Amino acid sequence: MSTSASASTIPADGAAGADRAAFFERLIKELSSNTRFIANEESGAGVKLVPRAISAVSNHRVLHEQIPGKDGAPPTERPHVAFILGQTGTHAEGQRLGAAGTTPANVKIDDQTHVKFTIICKAAGDDIPELADFWTDQSVGLYERACALVGGADAYQALLGNRAQFVRPFVREHSGNKRDISAIGGLFANQFLPLVTKDIYTTVPPSAGSRNAAAQVPVRTARKRRAAEVQDLDGEVPPAETQEEPVAPAVTLDSRYDPTLMPDHRGSQFRHVHAQLLQPNITDMNGNLIAPWDLANALRPGTLFIAACNLRLWDMPAQGAGGNGQSKGSMTFQTCIESLKVIRESDLPLIDASHPVVPVQSAQTAVQLPADIAEDFNSFAVSISPFKTLIPSDVDMPDASDVGNKKTEPSAVAKGKRRKA
User: Fold this and answer.
1) CB 109 within 8 A of CB 115
2) N or C: at which end does the chain have fewer Cβ atoms within 10 angstroms?
3) Residues paired with 87 in a beta bridge
4) How many CA atoms lie within 13 A of 170 on its CB side?
5) Separation of alpha carbons 374 and 368, rounded Å
6) Neighbours of 126 (CB within 10 A)
7) Furthest-apart CA pair in the chain: how many Å?
């Protein structure tokens, strides 16, 4: 990967172009020096990558890193975390940030349904050779992790050549009539990397919540009596009672919200009774958590971001031909988001929400990653911004116990909505 940039490789046209050039020059320098980015060869140095089954009865695997012990101590293991750079794609390319996530419209969503957001990661700065190199090297890093998940390069190649298996690699390509689907264009127009979040709703075990919980004894309303009381003796209608202002929910990693705060949580597809909407660990450039209902705006196509991800393999055996089973097994390599940070906003305008949402007060994100990884993740991009205070240092990060009490400025997306209003 190239490690230096010159003004000649980064287009600059006027003040905006000069700012863009300066930003990407600093970005390329930081990318090259940070060993946790999967594009850098050093990202796997000093650790042994080993696949570990999710459970004793499961074929599904999570990639772990084995760290040598000190002073004769045995090695320790933890899930491998890869830093990934990209810019967001479009809905047509598979990005799903609505209330249904990736669930098809014909599938009902209830308290037992697992729903996740999908963020499409595309090559950033396709006109900048250094970033094109970075995307290529990042794809190589993901290929190496795929090999580690199945037992080596030979095993991975054999898997790709096995006609009895559907294989979905980490980095995929649009083909056929979707060839021109990308809004980015250029060398990597057809390549994309799907990133998935954790569940966006709490899921209630069948023993803890019944599907019939909402089937209560109906009670007749007093609509006729209320209608008669509305008119006074002179036949005049009294003014309507004023309603109290809704209380803005605090946004923390521990927050749980009413699912209907998602603008598109409407219609017969949704049958939630007890489920609550969860807060993903996704932050804006200032380190403020982004509320779930603001994600479609905050991550609109062309948003540049970094993500800390775990790498998984979902190994689904063939169920046999006919019936509801699949005649082939499937091996799906999946990149799962632990934390994501916006480092440059999209130039596209904000999207109008289908209905107004209560503004929220945001708190800086708590750190869930291991301390050494979180330090690198939260300190990244300090020098690439013209404003040195945009990304808080690890010292400024609140403790998990303080997140619910510490308030900061609302996210840039929330500010934009209020200014527009």
Assistant:
1) yes
2) C
3) 122, 304
4) 25
5) 8
6) 18
7) 93
Rounded Cα distance, 21 and 232, in Å: 70
Helix intervals (H) in 13-100: 14-33
Domain residue extents for the chain? 38-204+248-420
Tens digits of residue pLDDT in 44-55: 888 899 999 988
Between CA 307 and CA 314, with CA 310 as vertex, the angle to 5 degrees is 130
CA gap 251, 292 in Å, rounded: 10
Our measurement of the distance from residue 312's CA atom to the centroid of its chain's CA atoms, rounded to an integer in Å, reads 15
Query: Which tokens hold the place of 307?
Result: 């993500």
Of residues 391 and 60, more confidence is placed in 60
Contacts of 252 (CB under 8 A, 6+ apart): 279, 289, 363, 366, 403, 404
The reported pTM is 0.76
Structural contact between residues 86 and 39, judged by C-beta atoms closer than 8 angstroms: no
Report the distance separating Cα 129 and Cα 301, nearest Å. Answer: 21
Number of neighbouring beta carbons within 10 Å of residue 362? 25
